[in-house]
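Collaborator request, handled under Task 6.
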Amino acid sequence: MADRPVPVAEKRLMDVKLGELPRWLAGRNWSPNGLVGGVLGGYDRYYNKYINVKKGGIGGVAMFVFGYVVLSYVWDYEHLKHDRWRKYH
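Structure tokens returned to the collaborator:
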């Protein structure tokens, strides 16, 4: 038997086609509880995939540190940009 098609609202983000993206976003829960639930679910998936494993490596921790470095750079970019021009003038 062929699998029944899954509604767009129930698909994972990685399975959504570009044309289906607006309908998928409209089906999300944008309330504060829904956003907190999405963040906690993402954290649980990340933790179980990269941190809570029998034979762990540096990959999961390295991704977390890399994300922190990129986020810090984005937050401080305006200050760094102005500091770069002041440095030599």
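The cover message to the collaborator said: "The radius of gyration is 20 Å. Helices lie at 21-26, 32-51, 59-87. Please let us know whether this matches your experimental observations."
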